[in-house]
């Protein structure tokens, strides 16, 4: 439920970046921001606090806290972790052979367009046309 709430309310957080800072400060100081959406409470609540309410399983708490980045759970926003968990809940993808496969397979396309692909060649200048 919290992952879905976080993902559905993300546009509200983006809107805060678009309105004047003084308005945002008023919304925060008066508590109106939390009245608008509970997602703002999740943003201000650390990961440890929420996970302690959700489960007593210390292994699960630790796994979910350090799954994506190495910030201690008491210093990380639960909202960010919920968004990341929601994003990856159906899995993640990685190219067979590693990320270098993208570069390797685009060589032919570059050459067909008249370009050259050189490895470990000294570069003095990069030429571009008026279209970039």
TrEMBL record:
Signal peptide: none annotated. Transmembrane segments: none annotated. Coiled coil: none annotated. Keywords: FAD, Flavoprotein, NAD, NADP, Signal. PANTHER family: AMINE OXIDASE DOMAIN-CONTAINING PROTEIN, BLR7054 PROTEIN. Belongs to the carotenoid/retinoid oxidoreductase family. CrtISO subfamily. This is Uncharacterized protein.
């Amino acid at each position: 439920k919290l992952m879905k709430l976080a993902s559905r309310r993300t546009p509200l957080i983006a809107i805060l970046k678009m309105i004047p800072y003084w308005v945002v400060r008023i919304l925060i100081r008066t508590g109106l921001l939390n009245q608008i959406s509970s997602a703002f409470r999740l943003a201000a609540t650390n990961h440890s606090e929420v996970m302690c309410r959700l489960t007593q399983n210390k292994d699960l708490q630790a796994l979910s806290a350090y799954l994506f980045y190495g910030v201690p759970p008491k210093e990380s926003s639960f909202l960010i972790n919920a968004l990341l968990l929601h994003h990856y809940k159906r899995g993640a993808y990685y190219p067979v052979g590693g990320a270098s496969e993208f570069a390797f397979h685009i060589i032919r396309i570059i050459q067909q367009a008249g370009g050259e692909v050189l490895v470990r060649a000294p570069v003095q200048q990069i030429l571009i046309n008026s279209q970039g």
